Amino acid sequence: MSVTIKDVARQANVSVATVSRALNGHPNVAEEVRQRVFDVATRLRYSPHHAARSLSSRRTQTIGVVLPDLYGEFFSELMRGIDQVARERGLHLLVSSYHGNPAEQGAALRTMRGRVDGLLLMSPFLGATEALASELPPLPVVLMNPAVAVEGLAAVGVDNHGGAMAMVRHLLEAGHRRIAFIAGPEDNFDAAERLRGYREAMAQGAPDVAPRVLPGDFGEASGHRAGKALLEGGTLPDAVFAANDMMALGCLFALGEGGLRVPGDLALAGFDDVPLSRYVHPPLTTMRVEIAELGALAIRRLLEAGTEAGGEDVGPRLLQPRLVVRASCGAVPDTG
């Protein structure tokens, strides 16, 4: 059975009217009572029928955005897409980061209570679904690149697995067989899907070649460390595929420091197509993710909540990455 406002009122030991005022941000509710109501509503996963409609009435005219980090070109592009749609609709953004620490995610979410009409959340951490479901405020929510779907919540994401397979197939078709992979964080869903795509494509296209995986964390420094490890590790691969562009760029710098030429001595490829990837030498072959469009799609889905077109549509929407061939892989570049 669905949870009603009466259930929240009973467990919070307040009236139905008080629950309504607390969830709607009315000032004439004591902070202690408001917090108790929010805690009960969150625990019961109560979603008020008017929650989606509040986006249309724009009580605060503010959308909350909670991200694992704010540093780097990926998050800059993501916020650019979100902000563009928000400005078109006359909305403000309240942005918070939990600094890549899943344990701090709940604190970041709590900062949004009573201050926003809807929430965009990126929670890519594997194994954190149960905690996430218990921490979400009773608001319309759209998940971005979620590790696992949460029942009743809309989601947008990227086909990371398919994109990684496409890149490995391209490198194999270009004549590279020994392809090393720089992985992302072990607890990150995007990284896990890209690693899975790499392994599957290698098993299909080069079953006699052992996969070679180097650790990384999506940061440039970890790509630099991986590049140095390749230089010190004896036999070089034919190509290196990094799970994101920033690690690929760090690796490119390390290989240059070691006197190697890309793509003359080995090929290099990344994933995401951050703006910087086309302005390095050589320009980076990558899987293009329309990062700004991912953010724009997320906020549009949030604004659809409660409308006839979008009220019942909570299925995931995936963006398909596109291969962009540039000079770093040794193949003939395209014009993308």
Automatic annotation (TrEMBL):
Keywords: DNA-binding, Repressor, Transcription, Transcription regulation
InterPro entries: HTH_LacI (IPR000843), LacI/GalR-like_sensor (IPR046335), Lambda_DNA-bd_dom_sf (IPR010982), Peripla_BP_I (IPR028082)
Keyword Transport assigned: no
Pfam families reported in the protein's UniProt record: LacI, Peripla_BP_3
Single GO MF annotation: transcription cis-regulatory region binding
The keyword Glycosyltransferase is annotated on this UniProt entry: no
Residues of the HTH lacI-type domain: 3-57
CDD domains: HTH_LacI, PBP1_LacI_sugar_binding-like
UniProt-recorded name of the protein: LacI family transcriptional regulator
UniProt organism field: Luteimonas wenzhouensis
